[in-house]
């Protein structure tokens, strides 16, 4: 979201962008995943479960998404909670459509070529760029920035994300739970049934996310180890006995939840190197969007000065 927000703002100012992402498609922490079962396909939002809307500019953007049928309110999750329709990643897919994006392209570092940049390890590796924006978790941005601007890298080094183990489980029949939402109960930070969300259907699927402290304590365990713990915790909250599991997947978010440094974004005008992400504002989808926009505004201002 941070990188696409930055690209959107730059594009409106007439600045051409190229985006590189190591993933196979858009998502990041707004990712979705399908699990095939004997009862059909279950699709999960296994990162951010919803997003909130507080910033005025972001609210205007969300209203445009809502009019396009890309998002809908989820009152059960909160008065200002929204979800993507039919999945969270749909919003990012829509943003990607108007940009040049290279997926399955891992950028391993930056090489300075005079006054321009070259990307190490990425597709189009011979291409040079006037400006580079790192829209990465702090822990991944820091090593890249260290070789070029230690002040920027220091801000990333001080930022720390909390992990989150997430289980996606498909059951043979519905669980006995009144609201389909659990918060902060035992080792569970959040759990929700797919059918609790507006417009969702398919088999009985639940996302179960472990709390940050528990996830950190079990960080290096395997998904096979973690699944039974999350299922046992869910069983304890829904009557003690779960229906048969007919499909499952467990994912480790090593950098799942950022605290927010309050910097907004990072920018070195001389090098034309910057960073954006929720870790610079706060642990919300909205924060990532704001950070990307703030950095784009600095890039645009620097470009206007250079043209004078």
Q: What are the salient characteristics of this protein?
A:
308 residues; alpha+beta; FAD/NAD(P)-binding domain; Polyamine Oxidase, Chain A, domain 2; 2 domains; five-stranded antiparallel β-sheet; three-stranded antiparallel β-sheet; 30% strand
Q: CATH class of the largest domain, anyone? A: Alpha Beta
Mean pLDDT across all amino acids: 94
Instruction: Find the count of extended strands (DSSP E, 2+ residues).
Output: 18
* General form: globular
Task: Tell me what you see in this structure.
By secondary structure, the protein is an alpha+beta fold. It folds into 2 domains: 2-35 and 49-160 and 259-307, 3-Layer(bba) Sandwich (FAD/NAD(P)-binding domain), CATH 3.50.50; 161-258, Polyamine Oxidase, Chain A, domain 2. 30% of the residues lie in helices and 30% in strands. It has a 5-stranded antiparallel beta sheet. A 3-stranded antiparallel beta sheet has the order 4-6-5. A hairpin with a 7-residue loop joins strand 9 and strand 10. The mean pLDDT is 94.
How is the secondary structure organized here?
Layout: H1 2-12, E1 18-20, E2 32-37, E3 40-45, E4 51-52, H2 56-67, E5 71-73, E6 81-84, H3 89-96, E7 100-102, E8 109-113, E9 116-120, E10 128-129, E11 132-134, H4 138-146, H5 150-158, E12 161-171, E13 181-185, E14 188-193, E15 204-210, H6 212-217, H7 223-237, E16 245-258, E17 266-268, E18 273-275, H8 285-307
Parallel strand pairs: 1-7, 11-18
Antiparallel strand pairs: 2-3, 4-6, 5-6, 8-9, 9-10, 12-15, 12-16, 13-14, 14-15, 17-18
Helix pairs in contact: 1-8, 4-5
């Amino acid at each position: 979201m941070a990188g696409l927000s930055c690209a959107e703002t730059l594009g409106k100012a007439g600045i051409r962008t190229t985006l590189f992402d190591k993933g196979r498609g858009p998502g990041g922490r707004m990712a979705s995943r399908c699990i095939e079962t004997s009862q059909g396909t279950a699709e999960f939002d296994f990162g951010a479960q919803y997003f909130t809307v507080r910033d005025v500019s972001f609210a205007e953007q969300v209203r445009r998404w809502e009019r396009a049928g890309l998002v809908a309110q989820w009152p059960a999750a909160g008065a200002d909670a929204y979800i993507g329709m039919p999945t969270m990643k749909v919003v990012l897919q829509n943003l990607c459509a108007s940009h040049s994006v290279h997926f399955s392209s891992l950028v391993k570092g930056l090489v300075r070529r005079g006054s321009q940049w070259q990307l190490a390890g990425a597709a189009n590796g011979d291409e040079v760029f006037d400006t580079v924006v790192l829209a990465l978790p702090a822990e991944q941005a820091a090593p890249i920035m260290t070789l070029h601007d230690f002040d920027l890298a220091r801000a990333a080094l001080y930022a720390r994300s909390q992990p989150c183990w997430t289980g996606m489980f498909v059951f043979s029949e519905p669980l006995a739970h009144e609201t389909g939402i659990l918060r902060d109960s035992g080792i569970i930070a959040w759990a929700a049934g797919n059918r609790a969300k507006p417009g969702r259907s398919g088999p009985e699927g639940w996302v179960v996310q472990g709390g940050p402290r528990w996830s950190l304590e079990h960080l290096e365990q395997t998904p096979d180890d973690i699944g039974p713990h999350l299922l046992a915790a869910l069983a304890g909250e829904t009557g003690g006995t779960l229906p048969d599991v007919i499909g499952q997947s467990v994912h480790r978010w090593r950098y799942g939840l950022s605290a927010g440094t309050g910097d907004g974004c990072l920018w070195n005008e001389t090098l034309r190197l910057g960073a954006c992400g929720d870790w610079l504002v706060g642990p919300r989808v909205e924060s990532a969007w704001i950070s990307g926009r703030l950095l784009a505004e600095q890039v645009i201002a620097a470009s206007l000065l250079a043209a004078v």
